[in-house]
């Protein structure tokens, strides 16, 4: 039987996973909320389905026919996880040991005042979004236990990659260097998210949670300064967090301060990060921009 992936939410991270599996000969389908993305998925050879919190997949039996693997990247809302709200019974009816990957966040750990967290650390989310993620993770693991499905959670750090990175922020003139004493963030290149998910598919372990981040938790102002250096631009002046004018959403990202340990993906899944720190990731992104600007679009 051939492998078939169904993605609930085919966004930045899930779409790269889908592309890589398509290249390996998998059949891939995925959901989107917009007509524009619907057509874009179809153009890539990904069978598109419409889905959002208020719109379940119209013909879910047909959509899940023959599916061997499910990847979930839709975030939970105020009413819980939208996929489980609409399609819990449909997923429960999948064959035993069907693989389900849930893309979560390191926000489930909350604030640790700069200390290290592992997958064994207690889940102590700081804000509303983190609490929703903890509840959603629990619901997915419960589904797996009750119905003999291989559910795994991937706790993603701050995601960056092509078109979504500090270089783009600097080039657009939106960059700021907000300094909060002792604050560090973990981050991960989207390429390494895909590597980790594919490795987990190869080595399924029901009930496992994996921290997905690089080796270098770093202050956000340092990342902006490095991006400016790569681009030959002067970095913006530093602003203290206490005096900076930030939206509630932007300020909420500074609530959590922790260093995320990624040892489990290396030990259990054999993951070898392509971009072990933000310096390597940003340099590669800049190299790619320069290649495209000169018309050299060969592989890395």
From TrEMBL:
Domain NAD-dependent epimerase/dehydratase: start-end pairs: 102-213
Enumerate the InterPro entries for this protein.
Epimerase_deHydtase (IPR001509), NAD(P)-bd_dom_sf (IPR036291)
- Cite the Pfam families for this sequence: Epimerase (PF01370)
Provide the alphabetized UniProt keywords: NAD
Q: Carries keyword NAD?
A: yes
- NAD as a keyword of this entry, yes or no, is yes
What is the designated name of this protein? NAD(P)-dependent oxidoreductase
Q: Which organism is it from?
A: Thalassospira marina
Lineage of origin: Bacteria, Pseudomonadati, Pseudomonadota, Alphaproteobacteria, Rhodospirillales
């Amino acid at each position: 039987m051939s492998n078939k992936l169904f993605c609930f939410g085919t966004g930045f991270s899930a779409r790269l996973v889908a592309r890589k599996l398509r290249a390996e000969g998998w059949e891939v389908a995925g959901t989107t909320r917009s007509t524009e993305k619907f057509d874009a998925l179809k153009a890539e050879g990904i069978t598109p389905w419409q889905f959002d919190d208020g719109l379940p997949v119209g013909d879910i039996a047909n959509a899940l026919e023959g599916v061997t693997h499910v990847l979930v990247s839709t975030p939970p809302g105020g009413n819980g996880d939208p996929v489980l709200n609409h399609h819990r019974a449909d997923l429960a009816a999948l064959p035993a040991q069907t693989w389900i990957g849930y893309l979560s966040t390191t926000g489930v750990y909350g604030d640790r005042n700069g200390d290290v967290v592992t997958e064994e650390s207690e889940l102590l989310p700081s804000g509303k979004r983190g609490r929703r993620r903890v509840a959603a993770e629990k619901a997915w693991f419960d589904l797996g236990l009750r119905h003999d499905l291989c559910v795994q959670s991937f706790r993603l750090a701050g995601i960056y990659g092509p078109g979504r990175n500090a270089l783009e922020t600097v080039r657009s003139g939106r960059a700021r260097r907000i300094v909060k004493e002792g604050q560090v963030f973990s981050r991960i290149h989207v390429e390494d998210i895909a590597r980790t998910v594919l490795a987990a598919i190869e080595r399924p372990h029901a009930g496992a949670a994996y921290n997905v981040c690089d080796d270098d938790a770093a202050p956000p102002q340092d990342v902006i300064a490095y991006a400016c250096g790569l681009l030959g631009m002067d970095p913006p002046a530093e602003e203290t967090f206490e005096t900076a004018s930030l939206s509630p959403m932007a300020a909420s990202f500074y609530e959590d301060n922790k260093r995320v340990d990624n040892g489990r993906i290396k030990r259990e899944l054999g993951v070898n990060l392509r971009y072990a720190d933000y310096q390597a990731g940003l340099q590669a992104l800049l190299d790619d921009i320069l290649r495209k600007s000169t018309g050299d679009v060969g592989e890395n």
